[in-house]
TrEMBL record, chains A, B:
Record keyword NADP present: yes
InterPro entries tied to this protein: Asp_semialdehyde_DH, Asp_semialdehyde_DH_beta, Semialdehyde_DH_NAD-bd, Semialdhyde_DH_dimer_dom
SMART domains xrefs: Semialdhyde_dh
Protein name: aspartate-semialdehyde dehydrogenase
GO biological process, one term: diaminopimelate biosynthetic process
Pathway: Amino-acid biosynthesis; L-threonine biosynthesis; L-threonine from L-aspartate: step 2/5; Amino-acid biosynthesis; L-methionine biosynthesis via de novo pathway; L-homoserine from L-aspartate: step 2/3
GO molecular function: aspartate-semialdehyde dehydrogenase activity; NAD binding; NADP binding; protein dimerization activity
Subunit structure as annotated in this protein's UniProt entry: Homodimer.
Enzyme Commission identifier(s): 1.2.1.11
Lineage summary: Eukaryota, Viridiplantae, Streptophyta, Embryophyta, Tracheophyta
Catalyzed chemical reaction(s): L-aspartate 4-semialdehyde + phosphate + NADP(+) = 4-phospho-L-aspartate + NADPH + H(+)
Amino acid sequence: MAAVTHHPFLSSKLLQTTKPNPIRIGPTAVRMSLQETAPSLAVVGVTGAVGQEFLSVLSDRDFPFRSIKMLASKRSSGKRLTFQGCDYTVEELTADSFDGVDIALFSAGGSISKEFGPVAVERGTIVVDNSSAFRMEEKVPLVIPEVNPEAMDGIKLGTGKGALIANPNCSTIICLMAATPLHQRAKVQRMVVSTYQAASGAGAAAMEELELQTREVLEGKSPTCKIFKQQYAFNLFSHNAPVLSNGYNEEEMKLVKETRKIWNDKNVKVTATCIRVPVMRAHAESINLQFENPLDEDTARNILKNAPGVVVIDDRASNLFPTPLEVSNKDDVAVGRIRCDVSQEGNHGLEIFVCGDQIRKGAALNAVQIAEMLL
Amino acid sequence: MAAVTHHPFLSSKLLQTTKPNPIRIGPTAVRMSLQETAPSLAVVGVTGAVGQEFLSVLSDRDFPFRSIKMLASKRSSGKRLTFQGCDYTVEELTADSFDGVDIALFSAGGSISKEFGPVAVERGTIVVDNSSAFRMEEKVPLVIPEVNPEAMDGIKLGTGKGALIANPNCSTIICLMAATPLHQRAKVQRMVVSTYQAASGAGAAAMEELELQTREVLEGKSPTCKIFKQQYAFNLFSHNAPVLSNGYNEEEMKLVKETRKIWNDKNVKVTATCIRVPVMRAHAESINLQFENPLDEDTARNILKNAPGVVVIDDRASNLFPTPLEVSNKDDVAVGRIRCDVSQEGNHGLEIFVCGDQIRKGAALNAVQIAEMLL
């Protein structure tokens, strides 16, 4: 188990693994107990919030491996961390890092993926990339294992052939985990999404900034704005992704485009408004669905109750529905507020409210699940 | 000026007016400088967040009055406060409180309004009621002065005839301030709203609870949950209003029904998801609009720039759009993220993002503006 202590909302605890550790047993530790047939792994961007969560999820799921490389930028190289009782030193990512690596989990930003993803593939590594770098490339599968596992057909371990597989954007994963089972039944024609996105989506430093700013504001001080250019504590703002010429920001257009690709449906209409709220690590989404075929709310609720990776929290009497805090550090995406849309007729519309851990199912868990499908 | 010091996000400063003041000049102070023709006022629920804001707005707008009564529950009676340099003692609200009162601004909850609103009307008082008690009664005008001033036709001061006028719900006011000018041009057919609602909507005690909880969580303590039954700090949850049999909560159905009444359009389709976010005093709303007639985004932006009580903040290059913090303590509702909806064709849809001070335009300012129309 990675020595990551997850506090449900505070970030400063998140990177305790990177504390120097006096014992150093070499750059790539080998787990003695594992069969030689297990794949060799690499984690790229291991000191980041998602990188840390990769380790946590690999451990939680007993992912088999014969070796694991901890890779990061030069700045982080030399840092030491403990994983499953072994001590590792973070290595600097270079082209040679991928020699002999079967599966690499990337989460170090789009430019690192663009530079090193193809290099790894050339050396025979299957790359599961959490960045947006390759998501919309036609030949790169964009995969949520519960939704479109078939997109990975043909990619196999042990052939010596590398490949790129893209992990969708966190908001897309969380949205489609809930919307897909309903889409499969009644066919979504149009989807209107408004997000409530946590600090974690902008990385560990953003979580730290939210915490720091909150302390400052409570002390009557001016908030420190380094990651975001405006006050985040007790405030919210339009997602910080660049705004495109059509007025949508990149985060919103990811939801629009990735949904079409994952559902393999060029005609599905999606619109989104992405907002950053002062929550630490789980996203929420208000989703309005318009269906081609009628779907009543009881049927929808039952479909969702039986959907893999989904939990329904929909207690109207007690007013208990999904919250970001409740899903933090959890694998399942929670769905609630399931109700027939009063603005649509004939059971052709539903409103739902969804929460999912941005770092876990929104990133690391989904990537590790993709890797599991290769085993 | 009321001695209310508004901190933009923290509540503990909000009720400084109720600090005991050594000078007491009687229950109903008379402003010497005002003409005898100005109306006599009463503020019901004066110690609450909205009640305090009534005083602030009356003062900011130089609302003329010959006398003003500070009314609240028995629990608060005897408290002293300073308003425009005069000291007042809060009086217990009784049936006799309204003798000689021309205009009463009510914000003490629905049950107080139900009990004392008709009593006041009987005594010849024109009641502007901030609660939901009478909003949907057919004969009670539901008014946003910039939107449907004509609904108040026939209600006049000085006739000795009392009347009820309802102040819409805060989410409705903020939504319709932005949506109405667009509706007037292109006719809204359907509106999908997701809210990001501040603590202030649940009163001063909720703002205090958010502040307290945040301090507790930062100190690693369990959060105190008195007003809300779950953690609010660094979290969000479905609005705490009771959930109805159709799965919508009361807050959401207010948006649906009040929009129809204010626009005098029984056919307009509205759906809403109302979420409480850890922000102090201003609401945000993501609004998706479907129009009968085409409306391009430049025209929409110009319409909004010229709309009374609306300010457009829509700087795509700098990624600067409305935030709750920016509109806190401001009169205008801010609109941004104005863009043609990519999920609709032929300029028949728009996405907008709106922020408005819940206590001010969402409650006290709107009520005082209604009262101004009586002058």
